[in-house]
Amino acid sequence: MHNSTFAVPRENRYFEDYVVGSTYEFGSIAVTEEEVSSFARRYDPQLFHIDPAAAINTHFGGLIASGWLTAGLMMRLLVDNVVSGVASMGSPGVKELRWLKPVRPGDELSIRVTIREARRSRSKPDRGSVGNFVEVINQNREVVMTMQSVGMYLCRDKE
């Protein structure tokens, strides 16, 4: 089941609104050379992230974004569009994160999120966990990053 948006806005979205099998697409967010270099100088100062001229001579053939910047941009799109604004309880972590293709300045990224599981807690029935598969997609519709994650949400129906 493919949707462009949730039935309920994030300001009123609870555990029950994450329907297993639903897929959503959101975006886009631009990748700029300044952001690529600035982020890398601070957090991931590898040559192919910080120096456009030197990056040409690497196996990437030019400047690429740190995978961690790509993950940060993905997180921004996820929080703005998927994560509940009222019921999010954070995440216990991710199961898998994969960088599949380089992200370059000038790319426009979007996300596709598939709800893979939703389980209400037996010990704390006021909340549940939602398992997502997130794909980061560039302007050419190429998947550049994937992530399996789990989010914890309060339930609307407290049982």
Strand content: 25-35%
Order of helices and strands: EEHHHHEEEE
Question: Average pLDDT, to the nearest integer?
Answer: 95
Calculate the terminal CA-CA distance, rounded to whole Å: 28 Å
> Which consecutive residue ranges, at least 5 long each, have pLDDT under 50?
none
Count of helical stretches: 4
- Based on DSSP secondary structure assignment, what is the total number of beta strands? 6
Query: What is the CA-atom radius of gyration, in angstroms?
Result: 18 Å
User: How would you describe the shape?
Assistant: elongated
Helicity, as a percent range: 10-25%
Order of the strands making up the biggest sheet: 1-2-4-5-6-3
Structural class: alpha+beta
User: Sheet with the most strands?
Assistant: 6 strands, mixed
Characterise the protein shown here.
The chain is built from 4 helices and 6 strands; from the N terminus they run ββααααββββ. With 159 residues, the chain is of the alpha+beta class. The protein has a 6-stranded mixed β-sheet with strand order 1-2-4-5-6-3, covered by helices on one side. It is elongated. The longest helix has 15 residues, at 67-81.
Q: How would you briefly describe this protein structure?
A:
The chain is α+β, with helices and mostly antiparallel strands and 159 residues long.
